[in-house]
Predict the structure.
Amino acid sequence: MTLMIWCNNDFSDDQEAERQLLIRSVGDHRLEFHSRAANDRAKALSALIVADVAFGFPDAQAVCESASLRWVQLNAAGYTSFDRDEIRSALIARGTIVTNSSDVYHEPCAQHLLAMITGLARGLPGALVAQRGDRSWGQFIRPTLPLLNGQTVLLLGFGSIARRLTELLRPLEMNLIALRRDARGDEPLRLITARQLDEALPTVDHLVNTLPANDQTVGFVNAELLAKLKPGAIVYNIGRGCTVNQDALIEALRSGHLAAAYLDVMDPEPLPKDHPLWDAPNCFITPHTGGGHRTEKERQVKHFLNNLRRFERGEPLVNRVF
């Protein structure tokens, strides 16, 4: 079986080794690289229509129009453009498999969240500000620093990032809860439903948002939800920026109801330099670096190649979305 593999996964000049790894390892399959540049769009779309496999991030509507595509491997954990009812229905009806790269990103994202949670608890951002500023010796904060043991974390969503974060937080003896739409039965923590959310929110010290962007999640973290959180709670977002009402978040920070927010994703991105999030009190921002790591491109390629071997053998694929 020789497959036509369409690829628009970007390889920079310093990622030639990873590109060559992909070329060497696809075997006898035909591999075509396509740019995401606008002037290559027509050529890339015409090639996608006749491909068997796509690796990268193809246009979701174009995937639906291809009669030959049997499998799409997305090189990201997010799959917003594919997470629409009409796209899902069309691809499921045709038998086209869609997988993402959650296994590439759950570890760095979970470690990023762990750094956010522990860094704030130990007062690291304030210490850095003092070092870069007036170099004041802030011993006064010493008796204010909390221990995380016994504090409650509510995870919005329980995908691979939240599952790995649970493992990292478990030794800190925190009380871990997750909101999940459909329980699988193997979750290693207490699950709640949307009906139980209002009851849980007043007990929450840390609200960790890993929700993807879709019709059900846009603006999910709104003013009403934030108001029900325990005073002094901290909000973290490493899911998608559009899932949080940012105006409501800013107001909750300004009023002092929230102690802090730590954001790796915003809406829009890049965040404009004059956006009020930059100046919101105790709002700490990282520029969508949560999933980044030195071996990111290599791990994307190896994840695809592992699934390619599975696809050749007719085995279940890893990180299947549908």
Observations:
- The first helix runs from residue 16 to 25.
- The chain has two domains: 4-100+294-313, 105-285.
- The longest strand covers residues 258-263.
